[in-house]
Amino acid sequence: AFASMLVPRFAPAAVAAMREQATVGIQTADPPDGVDARYLRLWALPRPGLGYVAYTDCAEGKGKDYTVTMVAVARTLQHVATLRENVLEPEQHAAMAERLCRWYNTALWGWERNKGEGVAHLTGLTHYPAIYYHEEGRTEQQVREGRPASKRPGLPITEASRETLLQGLGGVVEAYALGSQDRQLWDELASFITVEHRTPTGQVHYRAQAMGGNHDDMVMCAAGLVAIAPFAGMGTEVARRERRGVKYFEANPALARR
After folding, report:
1. Among 133, 139, 129, 73, which residue's Cα sits nearest to residue 102?
2. Is the Cβ–Cβ distance between 85 and 62 less than 8 Å?
């Protein structure tokens, strides 16, 4: 197989314009306890009563690709914090991300399920109460018995769901609706392309990916963040469940209307 047709995946004009607004962030703020400031970038401190959402894109292990956690205001997608490194064990990153999420008013926290074992284990140990649960497809037995679909923590990533996530992020970027001042994010978005792959038999398929030598951790993290943001903003229900000793929080949009 060979690749051709390198086309920018995200709207170039929007990416360039937003990149011009990038800043280094807040330099004087103290990070939350347990979070190493070397790996943390901040653009806004937590505000009481504001709902936040966080997402972690997990690397396969220490010293490989970057593991990154992004935090944003759930309602506006204002990006407020990035925790990014490639030198820690997954469980160490998860421990810092958990402190960061609690700092931001116990943000609704999701992660890539495929490589998120360290995050899932950590949230179980700490009883983190605001976890994104993904609704699975209903089984034939569930349909026959009239039962709802089951839910599991974390966002499953397949080739199909990956493209759906990128489409969602693409729409937000094109609408200038992702309020991020993180230059690393915009650099990665600028180098993310759609590649045409043609097999020896003439079959053609397309895949969005980072250009050779570039990273995609921030892109995939932002895509996950945008996808789960509508499920955030349910802090009162989180608090009630936590007081009752419930270990996990099942994100349900209907709760926001109660």
Report:
1. 129
2. no
